Every structure is written in structure tokens, then in C-alpha cells.
Amino acid sequence: MADGSAPLNSVKTTCAYCGVGCGVRGVVGEGRAVSVAGDAVHPANFGRLCSKGSALGATVGLEGRLLEPTINGKTASWAEATALVAKRFKDTIARHGRDSVAFYVSGQLLTEDYYVANKLMKGFIGSGNIDTNSRLCMASAVAAHKQAFGADLVPGCYEDLEVADLVVFSGHNAAWTHPVLFRRMEAARARGQKHVVIDPRRTDTAEGADLHLAIAPQSDVRLWNGLLAELIRRGAIDRDYIAEHVNNFEQVVAGLTENDQSLGAVAIDCGITTEDLQTFYDLFAAHERTVSLFSMGANQSAQGVAKGLSIINAHLATGRIGKPGACPFSITGQPNAMGGRETGGMANTLAGHMDFAPEDRDRVARFWGAPDTARAPGLKAIDMFEAVRDGRIKAIWVMATNPAVSLPDSGAIREALAKCPFVVVSDCVETDTTAFADVKLPALGWGEKDGTVTNSERRISRQRALFPAPGQARADWKIMADVATAMGFDGFGWNSNASVFREWARLTAYENEGRLLNLSGLSALTPEAYGELLPVQWPVRADGKGTPRLFVDGRFQTPDGRARMVPVQPKGPAEAVGDAFPMSLNTGRIRDQWHTMTRTGLAPDLCRHAPEPYVEIHPDDAKALGLKDGALARVTTSRAEAVAVAKVSDRQRRGSLFMPMHWTDAFAPSGRANALVAPNVDPTSGQPEFKHTPARVRPYRETWRGFFLSRSVLISPTGADLVWRRIPQDACQQHEFAGRGDAAQRDALRKALTKGLAGELVTYEDPATGARRQAWVEEGRLVAVLYMTTTGRLPPRDWLVELFGEEILTAEARAPLLFGRPPGAPVDKGPMVCACLKVGAKTVDAAIAAGANTPDAVGAATGAGTNCGSCRPEIARMIKALSVTSKELAHVG
Predict the structure, then answer these.
(1) Read out DSSP for 555-576?
(2) What strands lie across the sheet with 23-28, from one edge to the other?
(3) Is residue 290 helix, strand or coil?
């Protein structure tokens, strides 16, 4: 509606994906159908959604859902499952002590869920052994904030991204990971905002930046220390601000002298030109309104805390904090990573931004009435699962996350879970991790959850249910509260999520004499007011109003109210490349997928931009290795091996590789990237190093290839040296295969794939080329198609996929199935460019050829890039490429 109001039958909720915290309006239809749009009045997104958010309606079906409790694979009642979990945890504690049990939780939980989990483990079980998958993305920023500001406090707000004159993206591919915010900054560029990107890869964010610093891996601290030294040389620091509000400046200056901070020395160590380094110095010095966004590329490092502190040091030294358009800004990855941090979801914190200092611990214990509240931090994620593997932890409860895929060295994680005497998994779907569960507990998914989340700018928003609970699924907080009660603990008898939230808000205000995390203004919400709660940023005052920026008055949450600069020194990687593993492997996210694909994998449109696992490699490296674009490549580290499609690109730094981390056993078991990653961690934060693992790569050299299209998802095929990937399509599932075996391997796979298929079978076979083409038709509908070859080409898949959408397969369409080519001229849409509006590369190319020479013009002609805009950098790249090609042809002519 024009005034931003919603239809009467719509529900306002919050997106399930990244830390932007976009408002969503869902209009529910029949059954599980829902139409999703951005909430035009939500201050995080003002109606915009990214490709993932736009596709939420395609992810709410019940495919793969956990709908009933199970014990050892057999259906059980909630009473039986709850009693067993309570008994096994109680018995384990009685025999082996409080620290023999653990919870591993998730930024996908709501704040209410997080609070109950923390209260149960730290307050009543009495162990610090609860950690969150936010350890994998934000722990280093948390530690840096606490050292510099006295608490985990993000000082800025999204408005700062628009009013800044300079934005520095440090290890942050915002165009893909936070596209809604990137669009806001893109609009600011129209008035002259400058962008600097610090990233070894030329990402889509870097593609259109004013300056891209393609630094060598692990040279961030060197770069930022060099910047600070240069600012001091130029007299471009704010000595008055330092004198009034900052400690340890002289110690940091002294630390800088341990390295040569000259322009040439810094440039050499960072692997960039002196000209580019000089430009960065000039831009930073010239723009007082600077925001430095740092994300996974900075945090996911064995030097993650030092990287964060080096960024913060530059801002404190120049007084660029607590002011409009000026702050260091840690941007979170998950929808409620911030809520988890607030409620004590990390092993080294207590709820309400309190730690394990005796006065904090005793305060929390008094509030909870829990004298056994943990007195010391627990094990962080990597150490926690190592303790599971070596037997110190004998019972673990995993909630709403998939560590068998997402943690580094995930083979070791699977080994740990397999060894653990008692594993509980509460989740909404089956995952690689649920395969190890003794007890599976069905939890609510997005669309059914009701509670709160906190986004990257400290804004609390409501997630509201669109559907009733399916099957026997329950809210996570309720599952945990029932187990706590069954264990004999008092204080878990809430009658609603609103009651949990009120208790949490009261804890933040309890004996609060200076902690900025204070929700006192929300601690007495009625159920009705909680239900209608509007987005609000903490600290929340007594009148219910929020606070956009922190440290406006120059006061920090330290004992003396002054910020602390911290000396940091650059260090080499935890594991250096060498003869055995000469390349550096970097893993991360891609544009249209989320974590381990349990949700986005249900939306075919999100699987088309990057349909299968790939490894990105520089052309020079590929040529030296005999690796061609589009060929399968074998990537090996000291931990594991994976097979992925080679993507040869000069956007990748020489000597480095990049692999996305999303694929699982259900989609591409040979393409799991995190199995390759070494479990090195930052010594302070415990955050794993996902951005550098020594690796080698070589061609896979398959002896045959094939694909299988069917209307159902396959049970994972297995076999020696067999590689397969599944790509969801609208009306079928596409399975791609490759192997290094002989005819016996192919025949065994064919039998496994086609077992139980019914209907008319049409077959073509050519032993000379190893070609086999088979199609199954039942009641006039195409049921399945199998193509294999040892020497020839495989046909394009698009036209075959479209046949599955037809109600009746015509006689004219059957013959081409065996010929292996479509009837008439093939229609090639090209790779997907715009997932939101389903616009392929060929359509974009045609618009460019017709004269559309800007992303806006292409959008006007095709719609591409007009929704979330995450594809706009790719469109700009296509325009540039076509322009260069046209000039070259004109020159030849």
C-alpha cells in the first residue's frame, strides 16, 4: 500500500537470514502458501529484500521437516523424549560432573530461546559449556569490542552507512552478503560517497569500488597499523579526543615502531602497489565521516581480534566514533547473532553483557535464584567438539545448527558426534548432524516461530508466526523449559514467549549501574504490547525509546569511562603454505545461498546462479596445473579432499583458491568445503580460521560423466571415486555425476538410480562412445531421464528440465530424448543473473546489445537488479565486458 500499511490478512515479521534484520510482510494463502514482500516501514530495509528474503515463500513447505520426536530412529511421544533427555543429562552430570555435558546453539534461535538455553546450562546445570555457531562469525569482533569499549558494543547504526563520505569494507563482500544495506550505500555513492574494499578477492563489492586493495592473506593488521602510523605522521589524528576519551595511545605508538611503517615497506608486506596504498591513506585522512565495515574476512582468522582492534585503533585515534557517519562497524552474519551475544550464548560470557567476574556471576545467580551458576567460562566451539571426541563431554545437545558441515575439519566433528554416548539434536529439518542424534526433537521453523531477534545495529524486531506449528513441532524455548523442569529445576514455568522476554529484559536492568545493554523500558510489556512491539534499538530507555548511536558523549563502558587502544602486531598464518600444499584456500558464502542450504536449497531459483560447488582459481595457476574452466578439480588439504567445478577467474589472487561452504551430503557430499579447513583459531576469541588453509589442486580427470533428472530426491548414492551433485529445479531434481571407474561402476550406479522406476522405458545405447540415454514416461508424463557418456558431450539440461513441467509429453518430444538435443533451435537462457526476477545472462546480454549501457537501463529493460540489487555489480561487469568486446571487434574491422 502507498502509505506502507499492510493488508488486513498480512503478518509483519523479520527475515530469517543475515544480520541486516529486514522487515518482512507475509500474506498467507491456502495451506502453507505465503506471499512475501518487504515491510515498507521497517527501518532496516524500508521494503527491500534480497534474493534470499524474496524467496522465503518457497522455503516454508514441509519437505525434510522433523515433525515428531524420535528416539534411536523410532517415533516417540514428547513425554518420552523429554524424560529421556532429562534423565541422560542428569545421570551424566551425576557420574562425570557438570562439565561432562554441553549445548551447541545457533544464531537461528530467537532471543527467548537463547535466554532459556543460557539459563539452563550456566544457571542450573552450572557449567559454562554452551557455545554458539556465532563463534564462527562474530567472536573476534566481540573480543575486540570488549577490549576497546569495555563491552560488546556496536557503536553505529545503518544511517551512518548513508551519511558517511567514505566506507571501508574490510573483508566484507556486502554486495552479496548484505545486499539491502549495499543498495543504501550505492545510493549514497550518487552524492559522492567513496568506497574502499580490502579483500584478497575482487568480489562484486570490490568490482565497482573507488579502490580495491587486493592484499595478501593475513596482512590486514599490517595495513591498518601502517594507516595509523601514516595518520600520525600527517598530524591527521584527533589529539584532543585522545586526551579526553582514550587510553593507551602512547603504548600503541610505541608498538608501531617495531615494524618499518614506511609506505614502501607496508605495500610490499601487503602485496599491493605503493600507489594504491597512498590512495587509501589519502582517502582515509581526507574524510572525517568514515565507516569501516568489518565482517567475516576480518573475523574468521587466527588474527581476528588483532584485525578488529587495528581498525578500532584507527577510529579512536581520529575521533571517528559516536558521530553521524563515523564509526567502526562490525556487521553480523546471522539474524540473531546479536541476540545470542546479548543473552550469554557464548561460552565465555554471561547474560546481559556480564562476564564471569565474581560480582557479575553472583548478580546473575541472585536474579535467577541459582546458587550453582557457573563460575568460569566453558569450552568454545572447537574445543567443545574436541572434548566430545576425546570423551570429556559425554552428552551434547545441538540446537538449530549443522556442525557436521559448518565447523572446520568437519570430518573430525563427525567422528566426535559418532563417539559421543548421547547426542540430542533439536531442529526443524533433517541435516547431516541429525544423522548422529540419539534423540531428535522437532522445532519450529521460520514462519512458525514467535519471538524477537536483534540485528547488526542493535535493533530488536519481532518474528511472528505465519502458520500454526506443523506436526508435533514446538518452540525451542518450550522444549528446553520442559527438559529443565523434568530435571527438577524451578524457574522454567513460563506460559508464553512474552513471559520469557520480560524476564530477560528485567535481567538486563537488574542492578544495572552502567551497563549499556539495558531493556528496562521493555521489562513490563503486556502480552498485547509484546505482540505489537515495533523495532527498537537498545539501550531502551524507560520511555521505551531506543538509541541509534553509542559513545556520542565520549563515554565508554570501562571503569574510567575511557576507550582503550590496544597495541597489535602482524603475524604470519598459523599454517604456512609449502611444497606439499602451495596454495591458500579461502572459504565463504555466495550470493543466493545460506549456510548449509537447509532453507535456501528448497528454493530452485536460489540454486541457479551458482548451481554446484566450485573452486575459484587464477588463470595463471590454472594453466600451470592443466586445469580448464568448467572441469572438475580435486582440492586437497592436510584434513580432507573435495571435488568441485573449476572456475578460472582473474578476480582470484594468484596462489589462492576460494570455495563456497554451503554444500552438504544432501546436495554434494564431495563438495563440502569446510571438511578441508584446518581448525586453527584466534587464541583470544576462539574463532576459527576459515580464510587460510594450505591446499593443493589438480584436475579430477573423470573417465565418464552423466546426469539424472527425476521427480524425487535421490537417496545419496555412494561408490569409490564417484562424484555427484544435486541441483533443485522447479519440477524435478537434477543430479550430476562423474566417476573414475569403469563400465561396472556406471552399471552399478544406473541400477541404483533406476530401481523402482515405472512406466514406459525408451533407451539408446552406443557402446563405442559409452553413451546411454534412457527416459521413463508414465501416463504421458516424463518421470526420469538418464544420460551417460565416456567420450562425447552431454546435452544442455534446460530443455529437458522444462519437459518435466509439461502435463503430457507429446510424441514429437519423445524422439529428441534419445537424440540428445532439443527439437528446433535451442533456447539458451544462460546462467541465472537475477534470482529475484529470474533473468538469465542471455536476456541481459540482449538488453546491453540493444543499447542498455548502465545497470539502471538493463533493469528498466529486463527487471534484473531492480529488487535487491545484489546482481547489479555482475550486470555492470557484463556491460563492461561487452563494451570491450565491441571495441576490439571494431578495431579489427
Answers:
(1) --SSTTS-EE---------SS-
(2) 10-14, 23-28, 34-38
(3) strand
Confidence of residue 2 (pLDDT cuts 50, 70, 90): very low
Which residues are within 8 A (CB) of 147 and not within 5 positions of it... i.e. 6 or more apart?
305, 309, 564, 566
Distance in angstroms (rounded) separating the CA atoms of residues 760 and 779: 9
The amino acid that residue 67 corresponds to is L
Report cis status (omega within 30 of 0) of the bond before 539: yes
| Residue 342 per-residue DSSP state | H
Return the number of other C-beta atoms located less than 10 Å from residue 216's C-beta: 18
Whole-prediction pTM: 0.95
Q: Is 828 helix (H, G, I), strand (E, B) or coil?
A: coil
H or E stretch covering 187: helix 179-189
Q: Residue 720 has which C-alpha cell? A: 569409490
Cα 520 off chain centre by = 32
Distance CA(712)–CA(312), nearest Å, equals 51
Task: Say yes or no to pLDDT of 545 above 70.
Answer: yes
Q: Distance (Å, rounded) from C-alpha 665 to C-alpha 668?
A: 6
> By three-state DSSP, how is residue 330 classified?
strand
**Residue 620's beta-bridge partner residues?**
none
pLDDT tens-digit readout, 140-168: 999 999 999 999 999 999 999 999 999 99
Burial class from Cβ neighbours inside 10 Å (0-12, 13-18, 19+) for residue 62 reads middle
Q: Are 691 and 586 in contact (CB under 8 A)?
A: yes
* All three cell numbers of 308: 578488529
Distance CA 148, CA 133 (A): 24
Helix H, strand E, coil C: the string for 791-840 is: CCCCCCCHHHHHHCCCCCCCHHHHHHHHHCCCCCCCCCCCCEEECCCCEE
Parallel, antiparallel, or unpaired for β 632-636 and 563-564?
unpaired
